Amino acid sequence: MLPRRRTDCPRQPAPHPCVGWPATRSEIEIMTARTEQTSPTISPPSWRSPRFLTEALRSPHQIGAIARSGRRLAAHAAGLIAARSGPQTVVELGPGDGALTVELQRRLPADSNLIAVEVNTAMAEHLSHTLPWLKLIHGDAADLPKHLAEAGLGRADLIVSALPWSVFNVELQQRLMGAIVDGLEPGGTFATVQTVPVKPLPRARHFRRLLNKKFDAVLHTSTVWRNMPPAHLYVCRNPSGSAAPAAGVAGESLN
Asked: Does residue 100 lie within any of the structural domains?
């Protein structure tokens, strides 16, 4: 007979989405508030997407995951948009069927630019129909600086990635990361989804070391266990060798 579960234990407060984030109280309050914001003006696509699963099974080296990112993980990514006035440029790499895209668009200040780069043809066509307002580029993320230049934009303030890094070989990881660093403002932020089951894999471990090499500050959000599969974000700031670090940001080793 299984023991009865105790119900009188006090509930622990949930940790702030960024584990180890050296933010002030006001910064935490702003990020938490932004994570909980909603907007009635943009309707998200269905969270149970057969198109995503079909393309994941057909093109595992382009999609990687078997399920799209959940709402909570998407909210964590959108909460990284800088809490400041004025237009910003945000790039999403590997938007899939738009799970993160809608949340990012909701949080952007007026006159900002959201650019999505999708290499999978079927997913790009799907996005063009389901999210007609999106500035979509059907192309390779490794050509990000060229895509930004052709769109008449400078470097991005925030780059969010759902690319399947654990299935990319070392050469492709380095090529993509070079494009990301070149396309990011010196004080900008790069965030990428990391699913828990693949973290022990050799290519996933190499990717983590690559992040530590390319950025002065690498942190991670708390794991969203209800995501399928469970996942968190690596949050990276200040590409190595760029201008002076943004105030209040310090590194945390993930080795």
From this structure: yes
